[in-house]
Design goal:
Blueprint lengths: L1 H12 L15 E2 L5 E2 L1 H6 L3 E5 L2 E7 L6 E3 L9 E2 L1 H14 L4 E2 L7 E2 L1 E3 L4 E3 L1 H9 L8 E3 L25 E3 L4 E3 L1 H6 L6 E3 H55 L3 H53 L2 H19 L15 E11 L2 E8 L9 E3 L5 E3 L4 E6 L12 E6 L5 E2 L2 E4 L4 E6 L5 E9 L2 E2 L5 E6 L13 H4 L12 E2 L45 E2 L3
Parallel strand pairs: 18-26, 27-28
Antiparallel strand pairs: 1-2, 1-6, 3-4, 4-5, 7-8, 9-10, 9-11, 12-13, 12-14, 15-16, 17-19, 19-23, 20-21, 20-24, 22-23, 24-25, 24-26
Helix pairs in contact: 6-7, 6-8, 7-8
């Protein structure tokens, strides 16, 4: 019973129709992603050139899973033929009565039955002769249309160069089946072993790979079910919140009605935002599950009902695909964020049409779209000088704050800067960095894996700041200690030939400035002392 159930499962997974054209397979070929397509469908795919390790290669995109597939040197005809799909096509045609199998013994009669031990199809006349022979009288002869799922309908493969020789050997060096004549000619000196013996070894390797990946497959299925459950919980929770909001707003006539609509809008926005994240996660898990299902389904079918020479050729293909799927990090896909949205009926909501209202929808976690940044460090900076800015994230105080991800790159050189992120424990983070190159910086700020509004930011880094001479004061004359040749940046002069402007220029007393260049910011960069001022700025100021 267990064996029959396993065969039924394999039969359900094997398909006789091409997923691209939806027709019966015609010369089916297996791609490295383990999807099977007709030769005609493969020939219609448009190849493209890619670079891998400095070498140019031609590739195709699988129309089923959109994976990039390397095109063999000989073209699509060098892809491995799918003997399992060919057998399924024959079975489908036999069941529908649209195909007749020839007798493998006499080649004249119509194939009616198949010997499970000899692996040949026979007409009724040859079946009677088969039963009369003492050596084969106990063999099991089953009707072709009654064969169990996954049974092969093709005779044992023979060598294309020596049609009378069966491919009963396997060359370990060339990794291809061989007949006895080819073993002496083409594979002389190579290690050759019987296909049956090699198939047993390969079956163990494939079985070990399936044992390794079965828990992963089960884990992805559980994660997908969890995503569906959370989505349902989210919708149910949203419905419950809407009911609470309806009850809460019934006593407040026009003002409460307006407040109710605002609360419902907040819920819908939060539900839509969370559903978008769930849909994205669901799509990612769907793709991972589809890829893994395809690989394990192909490997399981190959293991349970694949001919030996097909197993020894397709083993590397199956294990390679399973290995490729193991490189992805699925830890994020398997984490499902719980529903944290809730309604607080006692929280003050402010005035609406003169009424003090209560009730607010508390969003779960931090919303990247509502985060704000402040500080000069997101606009400009100086080489070697510490730059900083503040990220303000609004979230519920009862929930832990997630540290933002900040990436700072020099646009010209591509070098990255390591920022310092400090939690101020008030819903904000202080982010600081020190530029090491002059030019443009790209500063990306991500919260919960999403860019905040305006990210990435462009920051201009200037050269080293030139310090201002003298003391921060209202005029050059005072800050320079009374030097008569010190010129004020505003362009004014003093009676008696002094170049300082005194205390009457427009920068005083409203704003003091650095006298050497006229800047009104105490820590600004010095633009240099002006030797002369524009004619329209020169004026004499009486003391």
């Amino acid at each position: 019973m267990a064996k029959s159930g396993a065969l039924d499962e394999i039969s359900a997974e094997l398909r006789a129709h091409c997923p691209q054209c939806q027709e019966m397979f015609s010369d089916p070929r297996v791609l490295p992603c383990l999807h099977t397509l007709c030769m005609d469908c493969l020939s219609k795919l448009e190849p493209f050139a890619t670079m891998e390790k400095g070498q140019k290669r031609r590739s195709l995109l699988c129309p089923v899973c959109d994976s990039e597939v390397a095109l063999p040197a000989g073209g699509v005809k060098d892809f491995l033929p799918d003997m399992l799909a060919q057998t399924e096509v024959l079975r489908e045609r036999l069941r529908s009565g649209g195909h007749q199998m020839p007798c493998d013994l006499c080649a004249d009669g119509k194939g009616e039955r198949r010997c499970q031990e000899c692996k040949i199809n026979m007409c009724e006349f040859c079946c009677q002769a088969h039963r009369r022979q003492k050596r084969t009288s106990a063999h099991s002869l089953l009707l072709l249309r009654d064969l169990p799922p996954g049974s092969s309908l093709s005779p044992a493969p023979y060598c294309s160069l020596h049609p009378l020789e069966e491919l009963g050997l396997f060359c370990e060096v060339c990794a291809v089946p061989s007949c006895r004549d080819c073993a002496l000619l083409k594979h002389h000196g190579h290690e050759l072993r019987p296909v049956v013996e090699v198939a047993v070894k390969h079956k163990e390797q494939l079985r070990g790979a399936l044992i390794k990946w079965d828990p992963q497959l089960e884990g992805l299925e559980k994660t997908l079910n969890a995503v569906y459950r959370v989505g349902e919980d989210l919708r149910q929770r949203a419905d419950m919140l809407r009911e609470e909001v309806e009850v809460f707003t019934e006593g407040y006539i026009h003002a409460i009605q307006e407040h109710r609509l605002r609360l419902l809008r907040d819920i819908d926005e939060e539900v839509n935002r969370k559903e978008q994240g769930l849909n994205l996660q669901k799509a990612r898990v769907h793709q991972q599950l589809s890829d893994l299902r395809t690989a394990t389904s192909f490997t399981r079918g190959l293991l349970h009902c694949g001919p030996d020479h097909h197993i020894v050729r397709a083993k590397v293909l199956a294990l390679s695909r399973l290995k490729d799927l193991s490189h992805g990090d699925r830890s994020k896909a398997e984490q499902v964020e719980p529903v944290s949205i809730r309604f607080s009926p006692l929280e003050e909501a402010g005035l609406c049409q003169g009424y003090q209202l209560y009730g607010a929808v508390q969003r779960g976690g931090v919303d990247p779209d509502r985060c704000e940044v402040k500080g000069q460090g997101l606009h400009s900076g100086s080489l070697g000088a510490l730059c900083s800015f503040t990220l303000i994230s609004k979230n519920n105080v009862e929930e832990p704050r997630e540290q933002p991800r900040v990436t700072i790159l020099h646009k010209e050189s591509g070098r990255a800067l390591q920022p310092s992120i400090q939690d101020n424990h008030d819903g904000s983070f202080q982010i600081s960095y020190t530029p090491t190159e002059v030019g443009q910086l790209s500063v990306s700020v991500c919260v919960k894996g999403r860019h905040i509004k305006g990210s990435p930011f462009n920051v201009t880094v200037k050269g080293t700041l030139r310090s201002h001479p003298g003391i921060y004061h209202c005029c050059t004359f005072c800050s320079s200690g009374g030097q008569k040749d010190a010129r004020c940046g505003c362009g004014g002069t003093m009676p008696g030939g002094y170049q300082g402007c005194g205390h009457g220029h427009k920068g005083h007393p409203g704003h003091s400035h650095w006298s050497c260049c006229g800047s009104i910011l105490e820590k600004s960069e010095c633009s240099g002392v002006k030797d002369s001022a524009p004619r329209n700025l020169l004026r004499t100021v009486a003391l």
